[in-house]
Amino acid sequence: MEYIVSARKYRPGTFSSVEGQENITQTLKNAIKNKQLAHAYLFCGPRGVGKTTCARIFAKTINCENLGPDFEACNECTSCKAFNENRSYNIHELDAASNNSVDDIRLLIDKVRVAPQMGRYSVYIIDEVHMLSSSAFNAFLKTLEEPPVHAIFILATTEKHKILPTILSRCQTFDFNRITVEVASKYLRLVAQKEGVEIEDEALNVIATKADGAMRDALSIFDQIVAFCGRNITYQQVITNLNVLDYDYYIRLVDAFLKEDTTSALLIFNEILNRGFDGSHFISGLSSHLRDLMMCRDPQTVALLEVGSTIKQKYLDQAKNCSNDFLYEALKLCNECEMNYRLARNKRLQVEFTLLSLSRILSEKKKLLN
Predict the structure, then answer these.
(1) Cβ(67)–Cβ(61) under 8 Å?
(2) Helix axis angle, 279-295 relative to 247-258, nearest 10°?
């Protein structure tokens, strides 16, 4: 059987299977239910969160011949089968990144005038619409404002601020959410079960965090890890493959700061450099670690911690030994180091001086009190 990447194999086919965008999918279903379809929609949001997927599901659903009671496509009728097999004439996709001229838009406008051969609507999905030239946008305005009754436009973009106000005012705008680490981890767990892959929870959290809010990226990273590790995946294998620094390094470092153990702090940093990480990557990770410790100081902000249960407990345990004043000063020093790092001629010394300063926070505070 031909191999299909997970991002395509597990691409949602119904609104209910879209993860992390419940407010948007429910609004679209209500519009279908109440027969209040707009002639133009603008889907905005980061990459890989489901904009084009939702556009395709919407196009399929409004042309479905046997809508279910929950207003989901049946996936059984002639129209749905044509959509699922990529042979439907009711959906037209244009990549505005490579088709951004006035001539391309005029060809699209000519297509819009033709009524669909089957089904009620022709849906035109224009991806990366912010890449259209100004003249192409202007040529598109009249058709976008008053399209034929059978035409619906769905514009998708990652950069809403680049869209002309005259286009924005003609569309219903939907802002897609970034996918949280929790949602991505749960979905990856389902995919792993379907693929017969055993994977540790902490490994899933690392993949979800690395994806940076994009479900497509999370699935691509998952495929990469499976290719590297096989069917049994551990946390250590994932951080090795993705070149991610282990949480344990930062936990050991903060312990060294609290003990004012400058020797251990410098040796740990040297160990990190020997593993191939640069100082900028390290100091950024240390800032994130200190931020997470600060979140653990208040029961109400612990929910903002996007890590697995085992590592969360390690954070909670270490946070008990850190005062808010210590964490504030430590974050301040790390932030200054990040800002000065690029300009520093001796970058290693810049980071090492910061580590020495971090190890002296408590002693400096004692001097002030005395």
Answers:
(1) yes
(2) 70
